[in-house]
């Protein structure tokens, strides 16, 4: 067994206690991993799923690399194995196969081509035929059709003539013989293209079942449309699901079962996108080049089939409303809370494939201390993720490029954001960078040390921005503060300014700020802002009826930016009866002024009471 | 080739097609098994083409060595029992498109439309199933005899684009199927017949 693979194993005994051991394992690349001696159930083992897909338990490339290349002690490896186990155990997302939807609406103007299409594709497709500008007894017919795009395909709306009410018809046969054009057939089909609307059939019908102008609107949703006979109705801009007979092969190629993994999730309560048009944060929508994200009824809709997990939306989301289910923020924080972080460690984040390549090439620098972390897509990491390990004692962060990834050359703005912060605070340059797995040793050859005298060790967060705020507070306390960063990289940082003369303290702005950058103190009637929480979405500015608010973008690396401060304060108006404050002096006076201006006949004395006391007062006055 | 010879060849081709259809249309009864045995006893004495000759010898051996119940059981497991793990698809769509009623069926229907062949309602099998493909080929051969101007390209297209690929797929599927013995030999006999048809077309 001298040359066999050495795996680091976390065992779980009958009492549920975990123990870590490093043991030789017989390995058959492409199939199995066999562990000779098993003191208990294997909870997690170091290894590579690509090499041994049939391993008996979960495999962790990070554990394997930290065991083989990082020089951690057994106790430290135990902590890494525990962190990996917790990550794998808590990773859940929906995964299912979406069967192809072979319903299709076929529009044609020639009944012969429509019939031929049905004969060819009947049984293969579920066909809804529709004849345009013609009449035929066997097909629904219409003169006009409206087609609109919906998320599931297309919605068709059309009028279809129903001149004979079959519920009222007694099939007496009076109508057929009187028609001079022979429009009516025994199947009760009335050919309106031949009809001269002489109304003889209407007059002769004893039950009033015939109305030549009767029509009903049909609405029909279908995933795809096929246009026969060179039809060119008004079509929506998105024509991805509209085909012609020449493109049938293209259409049929779409009818395949698709494995869907919902690895990106959205949390409305954290999202600063606003359902009103063109308002609020839309960073994720702008970042998605594949149009996998869209808005629907005020919500961000994720098309998991179109999504390729490029990570752009996840990295740009400032609040963490969008989460990566393969390694979400909570898991990330927990991982670094559990794993050891000796001061001056180089943290290497990469996919299983990248870590595997690195392990294979063993491209490390002997004098460098590493911590390897498996992250399914490092491009999904946000500025918060990148600064956290540095605040906890890492000297630099390396993001491993996936060897086979197509988009590895694309720039990562979040890396520039984090590096700029470090440059301004500590004068450090490029402490976060990308590297190919085979060039890690070269990239980390220069010695580096942790710039922080004190390390960050808090574990509290409500959302991503709050966590970033806590990390920045820690960094700013120890760095050269005062810089104001206003480049495009920091467009989602800033504060809100308030024109005190305009603000009436109505509180409307608070409704739009789900991330709670804005809040109000009810006792003092003060409007407050926590600048670090503000993502410059502009919802509050759009909501404010008095146009009192404005945005002031940029990240100020100063503790004042991290503290809540008052934007404006109002003088409260107390109820004449109970003495409780029920509004602001300014809004009260404005209303009184308006009433005086308009000369409205109301009992203004009642306005000096709170809601409850006003009702009592009105009742008392009525009694008198 | 004079018309009498051509008529004889047509009769033989149709007889072969009937024989091939008889393999796959239903579970064989004793009478059918006896007929097959008689037919193959005669065929093993002939030399037609190497593929057919080998398959005929194999079939004759299997008909002699396997019991009627074994052949029936094999038919049931391969073609009837939908829950059998040995079940074999018999449509071209199943293999080419990954499911029955796929685009291959649409392509075949276009061919039928071009050839003016209309499906009758007395079969519940789809047009691209093996049995119906053999039936269509027989129908095209009859049309060629009845109408000298009938486009012979239809039969060639059917054979090359549909029947032969399906036979190859069936052969591959049955080779890896532990239960397929007798019907694997039938499929190989069919492959030999398709070779024969190709040679016949070349000669004509």
Please tell me about this protein's structure.
The complex is a heterodimer of chains A (624) and B (204). In chain A, helix 11 packs parallel to helix 12 and helix 11 crosses helix 14. The radius of gyration of chain A is 34 Å and the shape is flat. The longest helix of chain A is centred in the N-terminal third of the chain and has 17 residues. In chain A, strand 26 and strand 27 form a beta hairpin. Chain A has a five-stranded mixed β-sheet with strand order 3-2-1-4-5. In chain A, 26% of the residues lie in helices and 24% in strands. Chain A folds into five domains: 151 residues, no CATH class; 66 residues, Alpha-Beta Plaits; 126 residues, no CATH class; 86 residues, 2-Layer Sandwich (Alpha-Beta Plaits); 52 residues, no CATH class. The N and C termini of chain A lie far apart (103 Å). Chain A has 624 residues and is an alpha/beta fold. The model of chain A has no long low-confidence stretch (mean pLDDT 89). Chain B is mostly helical and 204 residues long. Chain B has one domain: TorD-like (Orthogonal Bundle), CATH 1.10.3480.10. Chain B is 71% helix and 0% strand. Chain B has nine helices and no strands. In chain B, helix 3 packs antiparallel against helix 9 and helix 6 runs antiparallel to helix 8. Chain B starts with a helix and ends with a helix. The mean pLDDT of chain B is 90. Chains A and B meet through helix 3 and helix 6 of A and helix 6 of B.
């Amino acid at each position: 067994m001298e040359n066999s693979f050495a795996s680091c194993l976390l065992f779980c005994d009958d009492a549920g206690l975990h123990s870590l051991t490093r043991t030789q394992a017989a390995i058959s690349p492409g199939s199995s991993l066999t562990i000779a001696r098993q003191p208990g159930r294997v909870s997690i083992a170091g290894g590579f799923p690509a090499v041994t897909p049939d391993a008996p338990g979960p495999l962790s490339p990070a554990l394997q690399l930290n065991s083989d290349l990082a020089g951690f002690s057994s106790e430290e490896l135990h902590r890494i194995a525990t962190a990996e186990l917790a990550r794998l155990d808590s990773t859940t997302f929906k995964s299912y196969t979406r069967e192809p939807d072979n319903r299709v609406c076929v529009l044609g103007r020639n009944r012969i081509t429509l019939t031929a299409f049905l004969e060819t594709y009947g049984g293969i497709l579920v066909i809804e035929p529709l004849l345009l500008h013609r009449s035929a007894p066997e097909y629904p017919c219409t003169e006009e059709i409206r087609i609109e795009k919906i998320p599931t395909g297309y919605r068709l709306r059309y009028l279809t003539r129903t001149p004979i009410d079959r519920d009222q018809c007694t099939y007496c046969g009076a109508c057929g013989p009187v028609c001079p054009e022979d429009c009516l057939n025994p199947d009760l089909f009335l050919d309106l293209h031949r009809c001269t609307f002489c109304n003889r059939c209407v007059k002769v019908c004893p039950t009033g079942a015939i109305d030549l102008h009767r029509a009903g609107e049909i609405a029909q949703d279908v995933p795809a449309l096929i246009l026969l006979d060179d039809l060119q109705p008004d079509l929506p801009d998105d024509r991805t699901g509209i085909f012609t007979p020449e493109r049938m092969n293209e259409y049929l190629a779409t009818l395949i079962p698709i494995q869907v993994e919902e690895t990106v999730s959205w949390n409305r309560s954290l999202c600063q996108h606003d359902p009103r048009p063109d308002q609020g944060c839309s960073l994720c929508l702008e970042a998605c080049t594949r149009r996998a994200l869209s808005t629907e009824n005020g919500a961000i809709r994720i098309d998991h089939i179109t999504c390729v997990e490029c990570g752009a939306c996840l990295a740009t989301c400032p609040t963490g409303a969008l989460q990566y289910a393969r390694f979400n923020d909570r898991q990330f924080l927990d991982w670094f809370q559990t794993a050891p972080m000796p001061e001056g460690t180089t943290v290497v984040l990469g996919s299983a494939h990248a870590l595997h390549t690195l392990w294979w090439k063993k491209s490390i620098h002997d004098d460098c201390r590493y911590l390897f972390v498996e992250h399914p897509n490092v491009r999904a990491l946000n500025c918060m993720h990148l600064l956290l390990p540095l605040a906890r004692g890492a000297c630099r962060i390396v993001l491993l490029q996936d060897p086979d990834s197509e988009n590895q050359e694309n720039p990562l703005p979040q890396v520039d954001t984090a590096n700029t912060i470090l440059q301004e605070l500590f004068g450090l340059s490029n402490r976060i960078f990308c590297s190919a797995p085979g060039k890690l040793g070269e990239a980390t050859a220069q010695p580096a040390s942790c710039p922080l005298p004190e390390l960050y060790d808090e574990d509290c967060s409500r959302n991503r921005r709050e966590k970033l705020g806590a990390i920045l507070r820690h960094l700013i306390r120890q760095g050269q503060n005062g810089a104001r960063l206003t480049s495009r990289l920091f467009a989602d940082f800033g504060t809100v300014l308030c024109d005190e003369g305009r603000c009436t303290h109505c509180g409307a702005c608070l409704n739009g700020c789900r991330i709670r950058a804005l809040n109000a103190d009810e006792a003092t009637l003060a409007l407050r802002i926590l600048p670090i929480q503000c993502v410059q979405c502009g919802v509050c500015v759009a909501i404010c009826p008095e146009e009192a608010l404005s945005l002031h973008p940029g990240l100020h690396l100063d503790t004042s930016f991290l503290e809540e401060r008052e934007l404006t304060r109002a003088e409260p108006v107390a109820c004449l009866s109970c003495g409780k404050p029920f509004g602001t002096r300014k809004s009260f006076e404005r209303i009184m002024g308006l009433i005086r201006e308009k000369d409205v006949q109301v009992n203004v004395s009642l306005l000096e009471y709170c809601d409850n006391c006003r009702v009592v007062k009105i009742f008392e006055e009525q009694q008198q | 080739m004079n018309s009498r010879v051509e008529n004889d060849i047509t009769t033989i081709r149709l007889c072969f097609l009937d024989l091939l259809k008889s393999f796959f249309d239903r579970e064989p009864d004793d009478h059918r098994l006896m007929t097959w045995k008689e037919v193959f006893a005669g065929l093993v004495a002939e030399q037609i083409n190497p593929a057919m000759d080998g398959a005929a010898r194999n079939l004759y051996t299997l008909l002699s060595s396997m019991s009627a119940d074994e052949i029936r059981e094999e038919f049931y497991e391969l073609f009837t029992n939908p829950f059998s793990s040995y079940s074999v698809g018999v449509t071209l769509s199943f293999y080419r498109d990954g499911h029955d009623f796929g685009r291959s069926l649409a392509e075949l229907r276009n061919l039928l439309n071009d050839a003016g062949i209309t499906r009758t309602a007395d079969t519940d099998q789809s047009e691209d199933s093996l049995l119906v493909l053999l039936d269509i080929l027989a129908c095209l051969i009859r049309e060629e005899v009845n109408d000298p101007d009938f486009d012979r390209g239809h039969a060639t297209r059917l054979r090359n684009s549909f029947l032969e690929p399906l036979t190859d797929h069936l052969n591959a599927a049955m080779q890896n199927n532990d239960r397929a013995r007798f019907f694997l030999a039938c499929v190989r006999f069919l492959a030999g017949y398709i070779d024969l048809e190709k040679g016949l077309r070349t000669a004509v």
